[in-house]
Amino acid sequence: MLCVSAKKSTLFQARQIGPWISVNKHYGLPYLREVCGAQMKASASTRIRSHGKLQINKIHIDEIKSHQMQLELLRKSFSLEPNTIPVNITDFQLIQFLNSVSYNVSEAKEVLKLSYRHKKDNNVLFSGRNPQDTDLQEAWGILNIFTLPLGTAANEKLVYCGLLDPDPSHFKHLPAMKLFTMAVEATLITEGLYPGYVVILDASHISVRHVPLSSIPSIKKFLYYVQEGIPLKITQVHVINVSPIVMKIYTVLKPFLKQELITILNFHTNGLENFHKVVPKELLPKELGGNLSPMKEYQNEFKAKVESLAEWYQIEEGQRREEALSA
Asked: Is the CB of residue 127 less than 8 Å from the CB of residue 155?
């Protein structure tokens, strides 16, 4: 599943005029509390320190205030299904899933259930998510992933993903996929909610050696999670710089893709002219024939956002551990 709200959140607006959370002087995470004012239960998995002070959670505050009824109904819908989602899940997490399905409570419930089922079944991908981990730091030198500052005419967020290092022997699937899941959370938390996401997959440097047969089972699990469990509404996927080899790889992976994703896939095989008709140059970095700054600037900024959320990734993992212990 895939999501987000048409109105940019207060969080995003704050970032435009300075730090991404106005109470901090740098990329940082506020002390987690329920947005409605009730403090969350103090435990190792739900506490986070920010300059040693308790701070009110500002994440998605406007959306949360506007959809209290849906949030309450969503929480109540799990009352007869204990141990399905973390008991201490926050409103800012729930609102992301509601946004992914235009605030339809029953659909949000199904996405939530699938998301946490995938996380449970694929624990190796969702555990040990320390941004300073050696494998993840190395992945930043191999995988190029970031969001772009300007949205489309429909106010959709642009996400770019490609390879920096073309050597298949340097590419490790698990860190790359883990980094992607962390990046999704980072863009939601630090950049606010959007009505949709346009994903640009740069197929330059991709070879069959990047997709060995031994990696297929883990890629399959990852693809199902992306399609069923992330709270983003992906409206378009543009695969650029496509070679015949890339199309052969697509044939191998196509059985793991749902029809709703296949219908929004666009392959660009002969340069970027047709791509620019859909995604204007004004929204793109220099390397893609655009008018914006070089990619490295956006990559460095996005890496800083992911690394700023180190404690959050531990908290989220702790939520799931507590859920498992209470089962």
From this structure: no
Q: What is the dihedral of CA 288, 307, 33, 94, to 10 degrees?
A: 40
Model pTM?
0.83
Q: Is the dihedral of CA 298, 303, 309, 314 positive or negative?
A: positive
Closest CA to 197 of 250, 158, 252: 158
> Does residue 271 contact residue 291 with C-beta atoms inside 8 Å?
no
Are the C-beta atoms of residues 305 and 277 closer than 8 Å to each other? no
Q: Using the Cα atoms of residue 251, residue 254, residue 255 and residue 259 in order, give the sign of their dihedral.
A: negative
DSSP structure string for 145-173: EEE-SS--TT-PEEEEEEES---GGG--H
- Bridging pattern class, strands 265-267 and 234-240: parallel
**Which amino acid is located at 100 in the chain?**
S
Type of residue numbered 51: H
Q: Which residue has the tokens 């259930």?
A: 113
What pLDDT does 59 receive? 84
Query: What pLDDT was estimated at residue 9?
Result: 32
Structural tokens at position 320: 């799931």
3-class SS of residue 309: coil
Tell me the Ramachandran region of residue 279: left when phi exceeds 0, alpha when psi lies from -120 to 50, beta otherwise. Answer: beta
Q: Splitting the chain (327 residues) into consecutive groups of 10 residues, what average pLDDT does each group show?
A: 37 30 34 35 35 48 94 94 90 94 94 96 95 97 97 96 96 97 94 94 96 95 96 96 97 97 96 96 97 97 96 93 66
What the block records as the tokens of 136 is 């993840």
